[in-house]
Design a protein that fits this description.
The structure is a homodimer.
Chain A (H helix, E strand, L loop, with lengths): L4 E7 L4 E15 L4 E7 L4 E5 L2 E5 L3 H13 L7 E6 L4 H6 L7 E6 L2 H10 L12 E5 L2 H7 L5 E7 L13 H10 E10 L7 H13 L4 E8 L7 E8 L8 H5 L10 H8 L3 H8 L1
Parallel strand pairs in A: 6-7, 6-9, 7-8, 9-10
Antiparallel strand pairs in A: 1-2, 2-3, 3-4, 4-5, 10-12, 11-12
Helix pairs in contact in A: 4-5, 5-6
Chain lengths: 282, 282
Amino acid sequence: MTPNDWHYEPFEPTGSAIGFRIKGKLDEVQSPFQKIEIYESTDWGNLMLIDGAMMLTTRDNFFYHEMIAHPVLFTHPAPKRVVIIGGGDCGTLREVLKHPGVEKATQCDIDEQVTRMAEKYFPELCESNGDARADILWDDGLAYMKNCEPGSVDIVIVDSTDPVGPAEGLFNAAFFADCARALKDDGILVQQSESPLALLDLIKEMRVEMGKAGFTTFETLPFPQPCYPTGWWSVTMARKSGGFDFREADARAKAFDTRYYTADIHIGARHLPPFVADALKA
Amino acid sequence: MTPNDWHYEPFEPTGSAIGFRIKGKLDEVQSPFQKIEIYESTDWGNLMLIDGAMMLTTRDNFFYHEMIAHPVLFTHPAPKRVVIIGGGDCGTLREVLKHPGVEKATQCDIDEQVTRMAEKYFPELCESNGDARADILWDDGLAYMKNCEPGSVDIVIVDSTDPVGPAEGLFNAAFFADCARALKDDGILVQQSESPLALLDLIKEMRVEMGKAGFTTFETLPFPQPCYPTGWWSVTMARKSGGFDFREADARAKAFDTRYYTADIHIGARHLPPFVADALKA
């Protein structure tokens, strides 16, 4: 790759591509699980690719990390015990730990090398790794959820790569059943759920699999995410029973800064565009 | 270009790119103003490119056309006379004419060939061209606004290409002053205003130019737009005085279908993320 070349990522399932202008490659490691590459870009800071797929950029990861963390944490009535499956870059963990009520947040990513690369090239995402409430494991997330004490967890956040390769098992009913068992009755599962424009079928399939595992109510929240295919992404929350009561007053009174998330953004995201709402109803 | 090739569009100002998987090229014409190309894609329907820049796809143009038309039409108290500068694909005109109160909508695009290509490859966008209230001109939008009778227009919609080439003059104070003169006192100007992530400076500069022309209040609304750089786009409304009073009840009671726009989406878009709001305040 020559200086100021372009990195293009064609995404077969959507027939669309994204790309970034690159200054050069900073690092590459082949872990036991996947190839991790770090590039320096001209306008987006550093980029992390896993097996050739864009994972995050310095400039725009805040959309994703804020939206996978704060909506679910401001929906659960009093989240104390949080588990993050995947999330090895530690950006989700950092957002979770901004909530003072959280007593313990376990991050279980299968690949230690993702965290080592994040520490080096995205140090801002790792700034809460030393928090006494942070419990950072490098282990199999499937096994972790299977062995979790039943009814011990308030929130499970599945912050995974796409449903291929190491993350494939994180999108089926067997895994979701383990999440359901680990969660308390009022617990909430949240998972990154791909593009609400081009991958609506995947969101529907995910909800079906969650349904087989005992989840009965769902809420999908869209948000912009330039470094993912179509630039528009989503998270989906699931509960075993009951609806999603947004703690709006607490969100308005939050004592920490965010760049994208606000109570109003949260409320806005709950109102799906008709073409998404209709597809998810069908 | 071979079948099932990829068309990539690197966008220099943002250092990011988009792309689509292509079945083949359907048409190409060099008008007196620009080169217009039509491609058939595998997943996005037809694509129109002008001078190499993606203008619209069959699949995702509804975001843009709905968001440049309905928010301003549901903000003006009683829009009867609408002028569209640019908009040669006729998709904005179609959305405007869904409002029964509109008595006349003039579309003035410099390039007849854009409309001819739209008629052939995006016929659904042209389905209201025969409406008795539609007034379709192919002429210089700058001259049209300069010669408009003062105080005769309720809404001016600037549905232009990027601020280079033929559209460059549509982003400066001289043009905006002509818009201000043509508008009634309670009239509203709305313009596509590029990416609120990567092109925030452009939105700020546009507001400065609008301010020089006598506009005093502004409202920028973001929305997803996968076929434009970063996948996140915006429109900016401007008024000579007063705020933006959303006719929410009318929007909720609208008698026509939309795929993205709703009253709730409109309300959501009015709440800017902190990083955008802060930048526009600065």
